[in-house]
């Protein structure tokens, strides 16, 4: 659903078709990068990933000439050139607020004038019942993917995180449930202007995340 509805239908033709250099931060499984590269064959692209095992997956999915680097996105001083577009696809929720603030400062310093930041993430709903469901789902997946044991133990602990939520803190497993106002920084208007907040459900697409598009000041 992500590749089918987010990338081709909403973002690319309107926002980055005339730009040259895109960086995707923490690509993980690389399926989003694959769609990017298929859409813009002449665009220069750098993919940044924290985990070596995820970086290794790129050999099977991406073209050999693509620039792939193992970095922590909090420190991006070695990017080859200034970016036109910085993409964060379901990655910033793995950082706490302070870390996201560091990322915001770093990308600002490494972007061309008139550059864009494109964020796709799942944000806390305002409705109390929906927030409980949202927190349960995110805690489940955080425990499932980060519990350092066998598959059976992973599934068992993930299910237990729903039955006994007080025992499992999602942040201990690398998930920091974001809100729109602090997805990158507390005072985002100091660095970037929010150009658009897109709720894809309004377009009739079966996706739960929102798209935020920022322009560098």
Quickly describe the structure:
The chain has helices at residues 2-15, 31-39, 52-56, 58-61, 97-109, 128-146, 151-163, and strands spanning 21-25, 44-49, 67-70, 83-89, 111-121, 192-199, 210-216. The protein has 217 residues and is of the alpha/beta class.
The fold-level CATH name of the largest domain is: Rossmann fold
Number of helices: 7
Strand line-up across the major sheet: 3-2-1-4-5-7-6
- In which range does the helix fraction lie? 25-40%
User: How many beta-strand runs?
Assistant: 7
Give the name of the CATH architecture of the largest domain. Answer: 3-Layer(aba) Sandwich
- Backbone shape: globular
Strand content: 15-25%
Poorly predicted residue ranges: none
User: What is the CATH homologous superfamily assignment of the largest domain?
Assistant: Vaccinia Virus protein VP39
| Radius of gyration, whole Å | 17 Å
The CATH class of the largest domain, by name, is Alpha Beta
Task: Tell me the structural class.
Answer: alpha/beta
User: How many separate domains make up the residues?
Assistant: 2
**What is the assembly state of the chains in this entry?**
single chain
**End-to-end CA span:** 32 Å
What composes the largest sheet? 7 strands, mixed
Q: Mean pLDDT score, rounded?
A: 80
